[in-house]
């Protein structure tokens, strides 16, 4: 999906003019002193020039949508160690489970781009549908799935040969998506459809469509059988029982919730509240997944959009679109411990245990242009991917 500096929240993000301000939420168990620290400037909202190392080894990958680049932040040194240029309008980025490759979608060129995590060389390139928004990979790293906002489809690619194997119809304006922990289903948020679509990844076809609310942006799964979706137009997050395929709870968020993430231990749901450029929000709401109780709210920076966490569930990483930086949040103290400047309008974010050596060439240019061509419309078994 293409975003410009003058847009609201990524085209269809139409957060209500009057919503529940994220800064008004406090930790339910906070002492009076702690509550005081969360008002006003908040001790956790460090300045955006305070880049600090943290006790975590790995790399945070960031898609700088208006900067046409990816930034790689080394957590151990607390700074950007590499910038990969040449991807036009990267909206989302995803690291493979083995940490060996990094994948992004170009909203400008309608393409899927893969690079090696260590050498940052181009390893894969393919044409997608119109206005690709997000990319996810299966656990084995054999297939990638891209949501095509302009086509109302999801395309499945075989990463061996970079060939499309299925094109699956979903709801209106598909955006964020994730694969269920068991690998059998993919859920995608249909921003203009007010719904999420469950895709059967064995049959490569829709299995269900669930109405959820206004302008759903991104989904997340836990391992207990639930999914979560941010409702940008309602300033809410919804919890879905995947087995019964119905919404079982809704909770208020900050203004204009965008991306969601469930920590690896399954205990916390993170929701980044972006607001709009004219009225940016700057918070992340944190919930207990079992009870949907609000545990706390952390101010991270203007236009909090993308959110991810490390496999140890200790730190969260948040892109602040209107501050051009990434906030690192300690999930124990609920404080921002570092803010790192990246490129223009950081959007998607992903974490990898693999590190880029400090001192590596800081800037690289790749040729991510793909020749225009007609997308294949059959999967690897010869079935029509668009009509099931």
Provide an overview of this structure:
By secondary structure, the chain is mainly beta. Helices cover 2% and strands 47% of the residues. A 5-stranded mixed beta sheet has the order 28-1-2-3-29, with no helix packed on it. The protein has a 4-stranded antiparallel beta sheet with strand order 4-5-6-7, with no helix packed on it. It has a 4-stranded antiparallel beta sheet with strand order 8-9-10-11, with no helix packed on it. The chain starts with 31 loop residues before the first helix and ends in a 23-residue tail after the last strand.
Query: Structural class, from secondary structure content?
Result: mainly beta
In N-to-C order, the SSE pattern is HEEEEEEEEEEEEEEEEEEEEEEEEEEEEE
Number of helices: 1
Unreliable spans are 1-43, 374-388
- Radius of gyration, in Å, reads 19 Å
The shape is: globular
The largest sheet is:
5 strands, mixed
Mean pLDDT: 85
Instruction: Report the helical percentage.
Output: under 10%
Strand order of the largest sheet: 28-1-2-3-29
Quaternary status: single chain
Number of strands: 29
Terminal-residue CA separation: 26 Å
In terms of DSSP E residues, the strand content is: over 45%
């Amino acid at each position: 999906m293409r975003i410009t500096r003058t847009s609201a929240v990524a085209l269809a993000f139409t957060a209500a003019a009057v919503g529940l301000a994220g800064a008004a939420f406090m930790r339910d168990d906070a002492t009076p002193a702690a509550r005081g620290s969360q008002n006003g400037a908040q001790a956790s909202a460090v300045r955006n020039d305070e880049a600090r190392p943290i006790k975590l080894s790995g790399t945070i990958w960031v898609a700088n949508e208006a900067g046409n680049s990816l930034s790689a932040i080394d957590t151990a040194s607390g700074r950007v160690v590499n910038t990969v240029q040449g991807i036009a309008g990267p909206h989302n980025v995803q690291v493979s489970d083995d940490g060996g490759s990094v994948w992004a979608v170009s909203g400008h060129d309608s393409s899927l781009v893969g690079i090696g995590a260590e050498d940052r060389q181009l390893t894969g390139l393919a044409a997608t549908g119109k206005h690709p928004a997000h990319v996810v990979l299966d656990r084995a790293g054999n297939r990638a799935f891209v949501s095509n906002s302009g086509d109302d489809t999801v395309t499945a690619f075989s990463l061996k040969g970079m060939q499309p194997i299925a094109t699956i119809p979903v709801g209106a304006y598909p955006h964020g998506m994730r694969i269920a922990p068991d690998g059998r289903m993919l859920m995608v948020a249909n921003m203009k459809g007010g719904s999420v679509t469950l895709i059967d990844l064995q049959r490569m076809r829709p299995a269900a469509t669930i109405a959820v609310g206004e302008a759903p942006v991104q989904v997340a799964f836990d391992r207990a059988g639930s999914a979560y979706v941010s409702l940008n137009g309602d300033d809410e997050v919804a919890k879905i029982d995947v087995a019964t395929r119905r919404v079982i709870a809704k909770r208020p968020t900050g203004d204009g919730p965008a991306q969601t993430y469930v920590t690896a231990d399954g205990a916390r749901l993170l929701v980044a509240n972006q607001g709009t450029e004219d009225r940016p929000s700057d918070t992340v709401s944190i919930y207990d997944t079992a009870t949907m109780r609000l545990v706390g709210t952390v101010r991270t920076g203007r236009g909090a959009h993308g959110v991810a966490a490390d496999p140890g569930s200790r730190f969260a990483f948040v892109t602040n679109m209107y501050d051009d930086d990434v906030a690192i949040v300690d999930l124990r103290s609920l404080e921002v411990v570092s803010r790192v400047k990246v490129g223009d309008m950081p959007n998607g974010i992903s974490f990898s245990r693999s590190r880029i050596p400090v001192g590596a060439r800081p800037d690289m240019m790749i040729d991510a242009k793909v020749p225009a061509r007609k997308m294949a419309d059959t999967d690897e078994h010869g079935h029509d991917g668009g009509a099931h």
